């Protein structure tokens, strides 16, 4: 067989072997569950957390209360989010899953952000919401949701949600990681520590330096 063909087949084989790891979010569990603990006593270290001895696990390790309770939304954005992840539901460790409730005042907004480690499925539980995401080639996918409608945000893509109705709104969300991470675009760009050089941001956003510095002061 020609050398080029062997090289191609070797490369293809390597890609096939690594593809499953490239597309994975959280590692698949190797046991029924791994309740997270913060101490190595009677535990083993798996996926960023120590695992509690399975014999010591209880139903409370898999339990969360609070998704039925609205949070105050009297803030600048008019929204508030309640998270259930591995930090407050330790039984989620290694399961590749977390969840959230987002409350919206009238005109409330969860601003553009993304989750580096998770896709997200949202369900409009109450009210009317405008949701959407932007792809890597700047395509906008946007939809108005009424109660009972659902929408999906692909992993790593910037997305947002806003209450466009006349009453408060609620979203219930499920994410494909025990710790999805949340990066708010404006906060990270204009509120980094230390700040990004204003001249760089001015050039990137085609704004004057004074405007950039005013934005940085807000964040």
UniProtKB/TrEMBL annotation:
Record's signal peptide: 1-24
Predominantly, its location class is: secreted
| Residues noted as binding Mn(2+) in the record, renumbered to the chain | 113, 115, 120, 159
SMART domains the record matches: Cupin_1
Q: Where does oxalate bind?
A: 115, 120
Covalent S-S links between cysteines: 34-51
Q: Which Pfam family, any one, appears in the UniProt record?
A: Cupin_1
Q: Which GO terms describe its molecular function?
A: manganese ion binding
Key word Disulfide bond present: yes
Quote the cellular component terms of the Gene Ontology held in the record.
apoplast
Q: Which InterPro entries is this protein grouped with? A: Cupin_1, Germin, RmlC-like_jellyroll, RmlC_Cupin_sf
Q: Where in the cell is it found?
A: Secreted, Extracellular space, Apoplast
Provide this UniProt record's keywords sorted from A to Z: Apoplast, Disulfide bond, Glycoprotein, Manganese, Metal-binding, Secreted, Signal
Q: Which residues form the Cupin type-1 domain?
A: 65-213
Q: Identify its protein family.
A: Belongs to the germin family.
The entry's function note states:
May play a role in plant defense. Probably has no oxalate oxidase activity even if the active site is conserved.
Would you tell me the protein name for this molecule? Germin-like protein
Can you name the source organism?
Microthlaspi erraticum
Record lineage: Eukaryota, Viridiplantae, Streptophyta, Embryophyta, Tracheophyta
């Amino acid at each position: 067989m020609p050398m080029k063909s062997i090289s191609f087949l070797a490369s293809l084989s390597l890609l096939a072997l690594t593809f499953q790891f490239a597309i994975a979010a959280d590692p698949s569990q190797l046991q029924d569950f791994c309740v997270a603990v913060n101490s190595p006593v009677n535990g083993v270290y798996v996926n960023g957390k120590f695992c509690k001895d399975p014999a010591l696990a209880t139903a409370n390790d898999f339990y969360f209360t609070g998704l039925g309770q609205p949070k105050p939304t009297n803030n600048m954005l008019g929204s508030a989010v309640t998270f259930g992840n591995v930090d407050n539901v330790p039984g989620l460790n290694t399961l590749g899953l977390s969840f959230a409730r987002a409350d919206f005042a009238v005109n409330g907004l969860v601003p553009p952000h993304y989750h580096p480690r998770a896709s997200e499925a949202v369900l409009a539980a109450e009210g009317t919401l405008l949701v959407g995401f932007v792809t890597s080639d700047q395509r906008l996918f946007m939809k108005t949701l009424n109660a009972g409608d659902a929408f999906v945000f692909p992993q790593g893509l910037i997305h947002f949600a806003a209450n466009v109705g006349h009453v408060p709104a609620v979203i219930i969300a499920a994410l494909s990681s025990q710790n999805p991470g949340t990066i708010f675009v404006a906060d990270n760009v204009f509120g980094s520590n230390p700040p990004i050089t204003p001249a760089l941001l001015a050039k990137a956003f085609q704004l004057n330096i004074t405007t950039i510095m005013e934005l940085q002061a807000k964040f």
